[in-house]
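Q: I'm building a small set of examples for a reading group on sequence design. Run inverse folding on the following structure and report the sequence directly after it, with nothing in between.
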């Protein structure tokens, strides 16, 4: 059973062999993670996936980039038609295409067909809306089946991460799993132990789960709004003293909404804003970004600056030559912490709630995983929230897929 972590920003797959060996599938070259991105080339009609999709888009080739498609699960947008290479295509079909590609690459690596998938899912696809949450899982299951999997099971992503962590423990441990992905932050408090019986009922070991719809793409949006969008007019006061309407800037700073800004309607609405600017050069920048389809490129620069600043702790340039020659913003470690404080507070609060629901004051270990878990301010926030608690760091992109593969193998053994 192939474990598939279909992520907002990155996806991964893993398989447990009959001999009990865990295999991380190299989905792109030697990398076991594949950016959840597709680029549809207008020049030759080809579809590029993952890092290749991002490289092709950033090279300036004409086409359509789609990223963060998982964020639309559970929404009406999933069934809307969008033009891809001149053909109306639903976003549901695009999810199917991506999962089919993951399946194909996994089969090519393993040299055998795959018919069963253990899919990861966040604690909440959609916060505070059980109906849309159920719709999201149902949509993902339908997509997996249309991609060629005849048997599909689900497991919560933080529980999968706990199962991966369990493989390294030497004694019974109560662990708070912190899974910070691109679109969601998920938590579970679970008891883990060395060498659990494959057919053991682990229900009583799962003490609590919580989740919140905040992740790495939200960090990118906030930093974009604070450091880039003001250069295009966000917060700018017009001749009447009123600020330029902000909805355009929010869409332009959100991975899965950027494409809407390039539509004929979006371009017309942006053009009509011109009279509301006192400084018309800011409006010229906005139109340059929209007409040149530079929104994804800007967000990629924001993401790169976020990672660079977090890793170095130094003042990091956010280069914006795609808007205007030598235009740039600066991102400092202090600004990174300040700008993201409300998101980090909400994430830590959700983690604390999980620990309280588990009936604990402190877990034995805080286990950090997920693509956005390496962000320095986030690690500092969890250290402050759980002082004196041991922190363990997992494979940021691979631990959930590994846990899903582990769970899939145990489920198959139980059913055999």
């Amino acid at each position: 059973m192939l474990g598939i972590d279909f992520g907002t920003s990155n996806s991964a797959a893993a398989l447990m062999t009959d001999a009990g060996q865990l295999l991380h599938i190299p989905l792109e070259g030697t990398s076991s993670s594949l950016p959840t991105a597709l680029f549809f080339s207008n020049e030759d009609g080809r579809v590029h996936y993952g890092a290749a999709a991002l490289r092709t888009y950033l090279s300036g080739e004409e086409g359509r980039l789609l990223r963060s498609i998982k964020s639309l699960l559970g929404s009406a947008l999933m069934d809307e038609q969008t033009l891809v290479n001149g053909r109306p295509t639903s976003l549901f079909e695009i999810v199917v295409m991506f999962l089919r590609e993951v399946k194909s690459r996994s089969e090519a690596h393993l040299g055998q067909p795959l018919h069963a998938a253990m899919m990861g899912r966040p604690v909440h696809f959609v916060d505070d809306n059980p109906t849309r949450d159920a719709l999201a899982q149902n949509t993902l299951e339908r997509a997996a089946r249309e991609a060629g999997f005849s048997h599909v099971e689900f497991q919560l992503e933080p529980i999968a991460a706990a199962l991966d962590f369990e493989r390294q423990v030497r004694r019974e441990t109560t662990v708070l799993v912190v899974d910070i992905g691109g679109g969601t932050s998920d938590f579970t408090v679970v008891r883990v132990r060395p060498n659990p019986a494959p057919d053991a009922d682990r229900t009583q070991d799962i003490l609590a789960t919580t989740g919140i719809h905040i992740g790495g793409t939200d960090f990118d949006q906030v930093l974009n709004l604070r450091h880039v969008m003001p250069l295009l007019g966000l917060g700018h006061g017009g001749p009447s003293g009123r600020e330029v309407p902000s909805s355009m800037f929010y869409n332009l700073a959100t991975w899965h909404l950027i494409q809407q800004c390039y539509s004929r309607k979006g371009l017309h609405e942006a053009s009509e804003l011109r009279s509301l600017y006192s400084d018309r050069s800011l409006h010229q920048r906005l139109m340059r970004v929209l007409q040149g389809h530079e929104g994804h490129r800007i967000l990629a620069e924001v993401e790169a600056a976020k990672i660079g600043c977090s890793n170095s702790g130094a003042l990091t340039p956010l280069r914006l030559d795609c808007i205007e020659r030598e235009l740039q913003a600066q991102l400092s470690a202090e600004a990174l912490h300040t700008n993201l404080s409300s998101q980090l507070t909400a994430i830590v609060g959700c983690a604390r709630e999980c620990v309280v629901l588990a009936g604990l004051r402190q877990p034995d270990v805080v286990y950090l995983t997920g693509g956005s878990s390496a962000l320095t301010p986030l690690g500092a926030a969890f250290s402050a929230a759980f002082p004196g608690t041991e922190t363990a760091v997992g494979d940021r992109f691979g631990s959930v897929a590994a846990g899903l593969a582990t769970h899939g193998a145990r489920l198959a053994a139980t059913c055999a």
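The longest helix spans residues 91-110.
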